[in-house]
Automatic annotation (TrEMBL):
Keywords: Iron, Metal-binding, Oxidoreductase. Residues 182-291 form the Fe2OG dioxygenase domain. The keyword Chaperone does not apply. PROSITE patterns: FE2OG_OXY (PS51471). Belongs to the iron/ascorbate-dependent oxidoreductase family. InterPro entries: DIOX_N (IPR026992), IPNS-like_FE2OG_OXY (IPR044861), IPNS-like_sf (IPR027443), Iron_ascorbate_oxido_reductase (IPR050231), Oxoglu/Fe-dep_dioxygenase_dom (IPR005123). This is Fe2OG dioxygenase domain-containing protein. It comes from the Eukaryota. Signal peptide: none annotated.
Length: 342
């Protein structure tokens, strides 16, 4: 990792760039201990890293999925829009949400998940609501392709967690139980339109830059992000400055959420990050790797004293709801209904 600083004629720093550490999954079978140590070091000190050569990940096809969806007519998106923006629909958590002109978070998105078996969860638990999909014309298999990417990302995330476990001195399969039965992982396609009219004041930040996503830390366990080589992603460094991540073609950006950081007692960093307006339409995808609703996240996985975990049980579902809806104030989650049985 190293920084590159670009200065104007006055000698004032105008932008700080950051090259992240890189691991290559093509070599992970042969360099497991080396990569495990590298991942742990990155998550302790930066909270972000690049992953190259993810088996089966076709970035061009994934980008095609993004383009296909966001080029759909407004009436197609309206049929998939969450109830908060289209009262005629029943979906409250999955589906589409639009750009809201009054928000500094200037993005539209389509979200889906792997559906659980009917009757396996309470119908009131909208974390597991059935995904909604656009009708297809038969020319491009949008749903099939994305469901295949979902499974690929799930498998990749498990491999990365096995390396984390190895680096932490835990059994390599330590984290699998959290994601084995009904994980709540979400796959999100994203489009960030540039500000083409007067931006809201809350989108204006230092040095004349504009936000399209305000600074935040993810809440989930692990995020796998594809940026399609677009710039604009910035992270808050340990010295309190913002640095733009230098894009890396055909590589995943990996970061962890507050849940994982919490369960390592803060050893791992859920680094705050933001996205700035780059003046053109920007696209990305995010796979939020998320435990099952009933996973206990109320203990420190690195605390070897059994008695230290007694009485600290905290289920992930209620924790996630509190963080997203009541504490994080993300505009896309503000109007989620309560889960009545909690």
């Amino acid at each position: 990792m190293y920084f590159l600083e670009f200065n104007d004629r006055t000698g004032r720093m105008t932008q700080q760039y950051l090259n992240l550490p890189v691991i290559d999954l093509a070599d992970s079978k042969y360099k497991r201990k080396e990569f495990a140590a590298k991942i742990v070091d990155s998550l302790e000190n930066i909270g972000f890293l690049f992953v190259d050569n993810v088996p089966g990940l076709d970035y061009d096809k994934l980008y095609q999925c993004n383009q296909w969806f966001f080029q759909q007519p407004d009436d197609v998106k309206k049929r998939l829009t969450r109830k908060a923006w289209n009262p005629e629909n029943n979906n409250v958590y999955r589906g589409y949400f639009p750009v809201v002109p009054t928000e500094p978070s200037r993005k539209e998105a389509f979200e889906f998940a792997k559906d659980v078996l009917p009757g396996s969860v309470s119908p009131d638990n909208w974390f597991y609501e059935k995904s909604v999909w656009p009708k297809e014309d038969g020319e491009f298999p949008f749903k099939k392709t994305l469901c295949e990417f979902y499974e690929l990302m799930h498998k990749t995330a498990l491999e990365l967690l096995s390396l984390c476990a190895l680096g932490l001195g835990l059994p390599e399969d330590y984290f699998e139980y959290m994601f084995r039965d009904k994980p709540m992982s979400t796959f999100r396609l994203l489009h960030y339109p540039p500000w083409d009219s007067k931006p809201v004041d809350s989108a204006k930040i230092e040095d004349g830059k504009l936000l399209v996503t305000p600074d935040h830390a993810d809440t989930e366990y692990l995020t796998l992000l594809t940026t399609f080589n677009y710039s604009g992603l910035e992270i808050l460094t340990s010295d309190g400055k913002w640095a733009e991540i230098t894009p890396r073609p055909h590589s995943l950006v990996i970061n962890i959420g507050e849940t994982f950081a919490k369960m390592t007692g803060g050893r791992f960093k859920a680094t705050r990050h933001r996205v700035i307006d780059i003046g053109v339409d920007r696209y990305s995808t995010a796979f939020f790797f998320t435990p099952s609703f009933d996973t206990d996240v109320g203990f420190n996985i690195l605390d070897t004293k059994r008695e230290a975990n007694i009485g600290k049980e905290e289920l992930f579902g209620p924790y996630q709801l509190r963080r997203m809806k009541y504490e994080k104030k993300y505009f896309e989650f503000r109007d989620l209904p309560d889960i009545l049985f909690l």
